[in-house]
């Protein structure tokens, strides 16, 4: 679009003409003589450098550059202008006898090559205007292409290279390192709990978080290294010319520290935690694929050991990664093949010896692996989010089973179901629980959901609505493994809890270590002070039972009464408890 002055005339185009000292110089004589041609403002500059200076300071639309074969200076000027003033249309002027120069001038960046005869007033303005218009279109086209290229190789959220470009640079870096006998490092990192941010604060906040982390990542590395977003919440870093392993460790340390600085997200402080895996060339792999795969395996290892740290690749991680993969594919089929089942462990009212409730505990009966306890597959189920469909199965099955037990004297007893943090953060737990209750016809106050500290405390604000929703249904909430999660106590009063479960760690130590008894007494006092019930877990001996009873514990669970048993066997327990009372010598396990 042309800018017009108030008179309606187009603004004159600013043209910088090069007053070349060599033989080409005389070609511009026609312009130099007669003042400004109409529609143009021509200013002469004595060198390409001076022309550039003036362009940078005051701008211009076109440059007029006389060129002649054999006058290398004039051609070099053209090249220089093309390189350093990309928006400037370059119009060359040549001797009519010098036809060979046209191709050369075009090659060096001239958009038009004129003859001195075309420098007459009207003709020059027309040619320059045409050249400027054409150059502008070419620039726009090139920008569009550039944007396209950028989009194909960069992540729009963080502006970092994407996986494609990262792999490409890694490929080149590996080849160069091989030639030079150099080392390089690939870091792969994964953000803990990024999904929770997206789910609770929305995608816009998630994007801002990623952009901020991307910028911090870049601040941790040299300009010659590459930071990339590999997808989702996964980032990669390529460090070339690596002196030794400790240099890679130092970068990883810096990244862990830099990313752990709090970030303000909509007024909430968010502290990111990353797990970093490091693979080195040539030690851990000689191809880009192997290096990324092995850095990935190391990253998994870092994640498993709690995140917020870095781990170097070691060969045995691959064996473990393969085992994990095969376990995962088996676990994916477990639900459909009905290999998952629940065992039930009674919770006993020690005053009467009667069963007051049961905790449903998950087991995996696999034809090849045998009976797998939760510790053998729950961590994997959590990582892969398989825990969400598995957890749904547990809820439905436990509620239905409780109703079946009613015929055997379970009516009025509570069924406790363990719920994973992912289920709480996933967002549809309230609906799921309400469906399980409706389908089974179980009264809501007979369902007790057990949540662990670690599941709850990551972000209390984010889950408080879910917990309130559950309370709204009328179900009871228990805090499992209380006191083992290294968390403060302040959150306790914010959560709508009904029950504290005293972890078996405290119960176990009671007979030997007075400190455990003190802690157990304190937990009982906290529960009672907050108006919560308490259940002691892992009671194995009558001595523990008596000590707990002395502290005021009434509801207990543990091998002393019975281990978790299969669904059918639990019926026999109900009968035995009614007859003799559990833990009183009658049906003690
Ligand atoms: P938890 O909820 O604290 O369950 C109690 C664990 O203690 C159970 O282990 C139980 O078998 C064991 N236990 C009970 N009495 C005694 C005792 O007297 N002595 C000893 N040493 N242990 C006792 P289990 O069944 O292996 O479950 C382990 C954990 O797995 C559970 O800890 C719970 O956090 C998790 N889990 C089990 N089932 C599920 C489930 O359906 N969903 C989820 N998300 N987690 C589950
Ligand atoms: Mg439990
Ligand atoms: Mg527990």
How would you explain this protein's 3D organization?
The chain is an alpha/beta fold. The chain has three domains: 13-151, Rossmann fold, CATH 3.40.50.2300; 163-313, Reverse transcriptase/Diguanylate cyclase domain (Alpha-Beta Plaits, 2-Layer Sandwich), CATH 3.30.70.270; 331-586, TIM Barrel, CATH 3.20.20. The strands form four sheets. An eight-stranded mixed beta barrel has the order 13-14-16-17-18-19-20-21, surrounded by four helices. Strands 2-1-3-4-5 form a five-stranded parallel sheet, with helices on both faces. A hairpin with a 3-residue loop joins β14 (354-366) and β15 (370-372). Residues 1-5 have low confidence and may be disordered. Ligand C2E binds at residues 345, 361-362, 373-375, 378, 391, 394, 418-420, 450, 480-481, 504, 537-540, 557-559, 564.
Bound molecules: ligand C2E, magnesium ion
Record field, number of beta strands: 22
If you average the pLDDT, what whole number results? 90
CATH C-level label of the largest domain? Alpha Beta
Global morphology: elongated
Concise synopsis of the structure shown:
This protein folds into three domains: 13-151, Response regulator (Rossmann fold, 3-Layer(aba) Sandwich); 163-313, Alpha-Beta Plaits (2-Layer Sandwich), CATH 3.30.70; 331-586, TIM Barrel. It has 21 helices and 22 strands.
């Amino acid at each position: 679009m042309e800018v017009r002055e108030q008179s309606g005339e187009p603004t004159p185009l600013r043209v910088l003409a090069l007053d070349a000292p060599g033989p080409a110089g005389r070609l511009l004589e026609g312009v130099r003589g007669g003042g400004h041609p109409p529609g143009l403002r021509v200013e002469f500059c004595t060198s390409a450098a001076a022309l550039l200076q003036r362009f940078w300071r005051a701008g211009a639309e076109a440059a007029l550059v006389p060129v002649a074969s054999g006058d290398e200076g004039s051609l070099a000027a053209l090249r220089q202008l093309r390189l350093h003033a990309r928006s400037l249309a370059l119009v060359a002027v040549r001797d009519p006898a010098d036809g060979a120069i046209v191709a050369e001038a075009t090659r060096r960046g001239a958009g038009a090559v004129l003859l001195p005869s075309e420098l007459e007033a009207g003709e020059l303005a027309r040619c320059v205007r045409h050249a400027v218009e054409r150059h502008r279109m070419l620039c726009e086209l090139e920008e569009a292409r550039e944007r396209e290229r950028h989009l194909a190789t960069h992540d729009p959220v963080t502006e970092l290279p994407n996986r494609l470009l990262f792999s490409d640079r890694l490929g080149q870096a590996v080849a160069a390192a091989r030639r030079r006998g150099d080392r390089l490092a690939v870091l792969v990192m994964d953000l803990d709990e990024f999904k929770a941010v997206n789910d609770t604060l929305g995608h816009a906040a998630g994007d801002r978080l990623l952009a901020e982390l991307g910028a911090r990542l870049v601040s941790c590395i040299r300009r010659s290294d590459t930071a990339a977003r590999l997808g989702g919440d996964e980032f990669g870093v390529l460090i070339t010319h690596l002196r030794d392993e400790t240099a890679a460790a130092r970068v990883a340390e810096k990244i862990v520290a830099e990313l752990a600085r709090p970030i303000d997200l909509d007024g909430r402080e968010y502290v990111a935690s990353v797990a970093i895996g490091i693979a080195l060339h040539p030690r851990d792999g000689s191809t880009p694929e192997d290096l990324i795969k092995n850095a990935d395996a190391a990253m998994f290892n870092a994640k498993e050991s709690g995140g917020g740290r870095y781990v170097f690749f070691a060969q045995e991680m691959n064996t473990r990664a393969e085992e994990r993969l095969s376990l995962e594919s088996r676990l994916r089929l477990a639900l459909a093949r009905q290999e998952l089942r629940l065992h039930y462990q009674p919770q006993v009212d020690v005053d009467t010896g009667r069963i007051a409730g049961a905790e449903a505990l998950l087991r995996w009966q696999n034809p090849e692996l045998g009976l797998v306890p939760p510790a053998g597959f729950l961590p994997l189920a959590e990582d892969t989010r398989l825990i969400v469909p598995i957890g749904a199965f547990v809820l439905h099955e436990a509620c239905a089973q409780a109703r079946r037990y009613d015929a055997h004297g379970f009516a009025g007893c509570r069924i406790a179901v363990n719920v994973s943090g992912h289920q709480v953060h996933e967002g549809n737990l309230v609906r799921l629980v309400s469906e399980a209750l409706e389908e089974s016809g179980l009264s809501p106050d007979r369902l007790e959901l057990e949540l662990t500290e670690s599941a709850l405390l990551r972000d209390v604000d984010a889950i408080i609505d879910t917990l309130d929703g559950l309370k709204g249904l009328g179900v009871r909430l228990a805090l499992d493994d209380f006191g083992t999660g290294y968390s403060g106590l302040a959150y306790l009063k914010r959560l709508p809890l009904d029950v504290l479960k005293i972890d078996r760690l405290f119960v176990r130590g009671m007979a030997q270590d007075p400190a455990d008894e003190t802690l157990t007494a304190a937990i009982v006092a906290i529960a009672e002070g907050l108006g919560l019930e308490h259940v002691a877990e892992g009671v194995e001996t009558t001595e523990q039972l008596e000590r707990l009873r002395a502290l005021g514990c009434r509801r207990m669970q543990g091998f002393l009464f019975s281990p978790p048993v299969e669904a059918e066997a639990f019926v026999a327990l109900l009968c035995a408890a009614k007859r003799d009372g559990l833990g009183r010598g009658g049906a003690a396990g």
